[in-house]
Amino acid sequence: MVLRRLLNRAGVALLVAMTLGATPALADYAADSNAIHNGPCTKQAGKRQVTLDITPRPVKHMQELTFKVTMAPAEGLPSTLILDLSMPGMMMGKNQVTLKRQPDGAWEGAGIIVKCRSGRTLWQATILSPELGNPAFTFNVRD
Questions:
Q1: In CATH, which of 2.170.120.20, 2.60.40.1970, 3.40.50.80, 2.60.40.1930 is domain 32-140?
Q2: Mean pLDDT, 10 residues at a time, over the chain (143 residues)?
Q3: What global pTM score does this model have?
């Protein structure tokens, strides 16, 4: 009985510490979290402009989405890129979309953003590319 009480207290303390520790980090992501619903979002990645577009809009979970990445300049990049979809501050399992180079020079792929059972909606799409420095875009999905 005493051991159970100690374990419960330790679990609550760990949960509180994790929650408090994650809060400031999540605030950093909020700045551009809804821009993707209005159209493509662009970031500077080294000497390149990287643009992410997700359709259809608004971006919703549990439906097939098309992810399109364009870059300027686009020379020297591979024909395939990986887009990693994750939730800041929460382990959601591996969810990656393979983006293939299209004739128009963009990279495109399809995937699904799963619905988090906690009700959280903040997601991050990171282009996994050493040449680009792994640029990330954050956004909220809608119901």
A1: 2.60.40.1930
A2: 45 40 45 80 94 97 97 94 95 95 97 94 95 94 90
A3: 0.78
